[in-house]
Amino acid sequence: MKKLVMVGNGMAGVRTIEEILKISQDQFEITIFGQEPYPNYNRIKLSNILQGDTSFEDIIINPLDWYKENNIQLFTGEAAERIDVEGKMIFTDKGRAVEYDELIIATGSNSFILPIPGADKKGVTGFRDIKDCEMMIKSAGEYKKAVVIGGGLLGLEAARGLLNLGMVVDVVHLMPDLMERQLDSVASAMLKKELEAQGMNFLMEKQTVEILGDERVTGLRFKDGSEIEADLVVMAIGIKSNTGFAKNSGIYVNRGIVVNDYMETSAPNVYAAGECAEHREIVYGLVAPLYEQGKVLAGRICGVDVAPYEGSVTGTQLKVAGVDLFSAGEIFEDETTKAIKVHNEFDGIYKKILIRNNLIVGVVLYGDTKDSTKLYRMLTKKEDVSGMTSISILQTECDAGGSDDVASMPNDELICGCNGVTKGAIVDAIQAKGLTTLDQVSHCTNAGRSCGRCKPMVSQILALTLGDKFDAAAAAKISLCGCTHLSRDEVVAEIKAKGLTSVKEVMNVLEWNNEEGCTKCRPALNYYLGMIYMDTYKDDRDSRLVNEKMHANIQKDGKYSVVPRMYGGVTTAADLKKIAEVAEKYDVPLVKLTGGQRIGLFGVKKEDLPSMWEELDMPSGYAYGKTLRTVKTCVGAQFCRYGTQDSMALGIELEKKFERLDTPHKVKMGVSACPRNCSEAGIKDIGFVGIDGGWEIYVAGNGGVDLRPGELLCTVKNQAEVMEMTGAYLQYYRETANYLERTSKWIDRVGLKHVQEVLANEETRKALNSRMDQTLQKYIEPWNEAIQSEEIQDKYYAKHTIMVGSEGK
Ligand SMILES: Cc1cc2nc3c(=O)[nH]c(=O)nc-3n(C[C@H](O)[C@H](O)[C@H](O)COP(=O)(O)OP(=O)(O)OC[C@H]3O[C@@H](n4cnc5c(N)ncnc54)[C@H](O)[C@@H]3O)c2cc1C
Ligand SMILES: NC(=O)c1ccc[n+]([C@@H]2O[C@H](COP(=O)([O-])OP(=O)(O)OC[C@H]3O[C@@H](n4cnc5c(N)ncnc54)[C@H](O)[C@@H]3O)[C@@H](O)[C@H]2O)c1
Ligand code: SF4
Ligand code: FES
């Protein structure tokens, strides 16, 4: 077997190895060196980690087992330092010397760091790897003010992440327009306006000349002499190919390692792919072209016929919630181009399509990117538009957004831009290999394996291709977390079948690949066990998310909040007095009415929590829990002339019954006594609206980031029926939702109609309510327990204890 060595264990390199293994499993003995101490992970998703959407465990693309299964020898945390191209040897920083027959260099790039005084101070970082990401997350816990230098894709995604982490964020940009390489001035201005509305501050046309501070950064100085404060500086001003070691070994390097159309470098049997490679004077910084390079390189190295790599036209999107943009090809018109432009200021939509010689050469879309796949296809396939009108070019073939969209797409439409996968390739794989799940489709075709944006469309193709055989629940099978290959449903079934009763036991018996579990599976397992063994399970407090573990919301500055329950938003003079006295005695910095109609005390020291709760002598409002949070009520028929029902009485009964109940995610309720809906019941997990002769029950509303109106579940006659239906609904949600799945997402997944059908059956409702009642019996007031237990106080609330863990939201 020939010896194949690869330097660089990143996205482009490992994809190349996957392509090689697809062609031939026994042609090479493979060795990989990676400077980072991890298996190959999805670098793209670092933005999602910073923005709080996913965890480190979830972004591993090839776990260590994959290397073992494929007989690949992997050296992590070890960098190649030199190549002897004559003797075909590579030498590493750990003193290892390894022979090769073929060598692939896939060393990617590093963040470009401004060569200015102070750039090496503590608190200054690029944004390139897990280490940078961890540093930013840690800084956000300790400091307040972040400055991101660079208003490109990376800088804006970093800035959004830092905002999510609670920092105040300034973005310093050199040019007059943000993302000037992808957007024209109009789209750029729209983007800036949206990001300003999200809370980012922009300093445009500013050149940073110095990073200020002693050991740690305290600020920035600009060329115009002005200065700003900063506790954390993130440089996102582009990338620099990692070529040093190739260059020192005599390989021809320009901006990147120069390669031909078969990814061959100037040295024999040495290839390069990815961000370290320069092809026809271009160094690419997006995965799509890098994966194309990997495919060509794999064919070449395996000696199979493969078309040369001739370069790529890239399409970009920004991974920031609330921003919908797409850009591909040229962005500026000139005398040789004709532009179709639509600027709808009212809806915040901008579209510009540039055409030269009847071919689309550039696309900029802002606010509505439905047409992006079609226009990108027309651009890359060089489709002649001479027979078309501007309206037909702009007309979306698929306006509905449902599976009709994919039905009307031609087979050569690109579905996954990152991985170059067309609709036809997905349909063929589903049919030829009998695929039934999204995971299987991703595995076979690579669609969805990178940024993940195309997954909804891949699901639609799966549903369309399978027709009646499509099973939505089975198709969505995703493992619980990186510690296991089992899905949520499989884990729950195994717990029941094998009678597993503790988090540790589940992880042992079901052969978790990480014996301690992770911040994703531990709280989930604790929840599922509690849901299954409703009265006997002993809660594993240390497996809970940190806020639940502490029974208080941890805040930015490491302090906590105290929010006592006020059933239905109703209080008394005596309770108000107690709150005021405690706030005064403990010098609470902020006393504030919360959005859920209660009073919050913010900025409380951890060691003060037990005594404050003791003096308050009120139940915890669970403002931190995956449980019933609040029941917001209007004043209702007792006081309001429009009221038809007693909203306060219902709200109080609901809150008293379901408080402390463990649910997959937080649950909020609202009760209005008439359709004027002063309690905003239409955007709650469960909302109740009084009508003549009864109540309407709305479900799956959400007033947060994913704004969603509630949908009518049913109409009932009286308060007793409300309680019965709510108990059954909540219990069904508890038993079938994934942990951390809000009711809105759950209903979207399982379907309102399905839930209506389940709850229409009286026997089922009874059984659900019986399990609910059994569950509710086990809960006790957590602060009463803490006040009486020295052990709990010592473990969680003593001054010296440090709480670590994932916060959740
Ligand atoms: C936060 C972020 C978000 C992104 N978002 C997107 C996106 O949405 N869409 C998109 O298409 N692209 C995105 N990108 C870009 C994409 O991640 C990169 O294009 C891709 O990772 C490059 O792959 P690569 O293998 O060339 O380099 P890398 O993934 O960087 O891998 C190179 C590896 O080689 C290692 N290495 C370097 N030198 C040596 C040595 N001498 N010896 C051993 N190992 C070495 C490095 O440590 C690294 O692990 C994003 C990048 C970042 C940082
Ligand atoms: N969604 C995505 O596709 C995505 C997301 C993140 C990163 N990436 C990739 O990661 C790589 C790095 O991204 P990036 O945004 O750093 O690179 P970039 O080159 O795309 O953008 C850098 C930006 O920084 C600005 N800049 C340069 N010097 C500056 C200075 N001194 N002060 C202030 N601003 C300055 C530039 O004008 C430019 O807009 C790119 O290859 C990018 O494609 C892609
Ligand atoms: S919802 Fe109707 S009953 Fe309740 S306060 Fe508003 S107007 Fe009055
Ligand atoms: S479009 Fe990025 S993974 Fe498919």
Automatic annotation (TrEMBL):
<feature type="domain" description="NADH-rubredoxin oxidoreductase C-terminal">
    <location>
        <begin position="316"/>
        <end position="382"/>
    </location>
</feature>
<keyword id="KW-0274">FAD</keyword>
<keyword id="KW-0285">Flavoprotein</keyword>
<dbReference type="InterPro" id="IPR041575">
    <property type="entry name" value="Rubredoxin_C"/>
</dbReference>
<keyword id="KW-0411">Iron-sulfur</keyword>
<dbReference type="InterPro" id="IPR017121">
    <property type="entry name" value="Nitrite_Rdtase_lsu"/>
</dbReference>
<dbReference type="InterPro" id="IPR052034">
    <property type="entry name" value="NasD-like"/>
</dbReference>
<dbReference type="InterPro" id="IPR045854">
    <property type="entry name" value="NO2/SO3_Rdtase_4Fe4S_sf"/>
</dbReference>
<feature type="domain" description="BFD-like [2Fe-2S]-binding">
    <location>
        <begin position="481"/>
        <end position="529"/>
    </location>
</feature>
<dbReference type="Pfam" id="PF01077">
    <property type="entry name" value="NIR_SIR"/>
</dbReference>
<comment type="pathway">
    <text>Nitrogen metabolism; nitrate reduction (assimilation).</text>
</comment>
<keyword id="KW-0534">Nitrate assimilation</keyword>
<keyword id="KW-0001">2Fe-2S</keyword>
<comment type="similarity">
    <text>Belongs to the nitrite and sulfite reductase 4Fe-4S domain family.</text>
</comment>
<feature type="domain" description="FAD/NAD(P)-binding">
    <location>
        <begin position="3"/>
        <end position="279"/>
    </location>
</feature>
<dbReference type="Pfam" id="PF07992">
    <property type="entry name" value="Pyr_redox_2"/>
</dbReference>
<dbReference type="Pfam" id="PF03460">
    <property type="entry name" value="NIR_SIR_ferr"/>
</dbReference>
<dbReference type="InterPro" id="IPR036136">
    <property type="entry name" value="Nit/Sulf_reduc_fer-like_dom_sf"/>
</dbReference>
<keyword id="KW-0560">Oxidoreductase</keyword>
<feature type="domain" description="Nitrite/Sulfite reductase ferredoxin-like">
    <location>
        <begin position="554"/>
        <end position="617"/>
    </location>
</feature>
<dbReference type="InterPro" id="IPR006067">
    <property type="entry name" value="NO2/SO3_Rdtase_4Fe4S_dom"/>
</dbReference>
<dbReference type="InterPro" id="IPR012744">
    <property type="entry name" value="Nitri_red_NirB"/>
</dbReference>
<dbReference type="InterPro" id="IPR005117">
    <property type="entry name" value="NiRdtase/SiRdtase_haem-b_fer"/>
</dbReference>
<keyword id="KW-0349">Heme</keyword>
<dbReference type="InterPro" id="IPR036188">
    <property type="entry name" value="FAD/NAD-bd_sf"/>
</dbReference>
<dbReference type="InterPro" id="IPR006066">
    <property type="entry name" value="NO2/SO3_Rdtase_FeS/sirohaem_BS"/>
</dbReference>
<keyword id="KW-0004">4Fe-4S</keyword>
<dbReference type="Pfam" id="PF18267">
    <property type="entry name" value="Rubredoxin_C"/>
</dbReference>
<feature type="domain" description="Nitrite/sulphite reductase 4Fe-4S">
    <location>
        <begin position="625"/>
        <end position="762"/>
    </location>
</feature>
<dbReference type="InterPro" id="IPR016156">
    <property type="entry name" value="FAD/NAD-linked_Rdtase_dimer_sf"/>
</dbReference>
<protein>
    <submittedName>
        <fullName>Nitrite reductase (NADH) large subunit</fullName>
        <ecNumber>1.7.1.15</ecNumber>
    </submittedName>
</protein>
<dbReference type="InterPro" id="IPR041854">
    <property type="entry name" value="BFD-like_2Fe2S-bd_dom_sf"/>
</dbReference>
<dbReference type="InterPro" id="IPR007419">
    <property type="entry name" value="BFD-like_2Fe2S-bd_dom"/>
</dbReference>
<dbReference type="InterPro" id="IPR023753">
    <property type="entry name" value="FAD/NAD-binding_dom"/>
</dbReference>
<dbReference type="GO" id="GO:0106316">
    <property type="term" value="F:nitrite reductase (NADH) activity"/>
</dbReference>
<keyword id="KW-0479">Metal-binding</keyword>
<dbReference type="Pfam" id="PF04324">
    <property type="entry name" value="Fer2_BFD"/>
</dbReference>
<keyword id="KW-0408">Iron</keyword>
<feature type="domain" description="BFD-like [2Fe-2S]-binding">
    <location>
        <begin position="414"/>
        <end position="463"/>
    </location>
</feature>
